[in-house]
């Protein structure tokens, strides 16, 4: 898990390399602990090599994100669709959780949200 502080105040928690359910749970909990009341975004792709438990494990991650009150959840790719589904089933509503088809769509969404936040108020 790599934590990076950007000059604009954004903290990035990167757990992309060889992520597994335990490491993603730890990253989500760390994200929440570091948030100090700030908005939190989790951008999650598919965890590979989970075998027959893949859908259940991804679903559980989406549900955990909701229980931890992550502000926005972005599930990236078809393999991560169950992350979004789990979040919705756990009580996510509106735009709290979204599924996008690929990394380009996730980046476009993040850029759009950033421009909205900086042009607001």
From TrEMBL:
InterPro entries: Mur_ligase_C, Mur_ligase_C_dom_sf, MurCDEF_CellWall_CoF430Synth. Residues 1-111 form the Mur ligase C-terminal domain. Gene3D superfamilies: Mur ligase, C-terminal domain. Keywords: ATP-binding, Ligase, Nucleotide-binding. The keyword Cell division does not apply. This is Mur ligase C-terminal domain-containing protein. It comes from Angustibacter aerolatus.
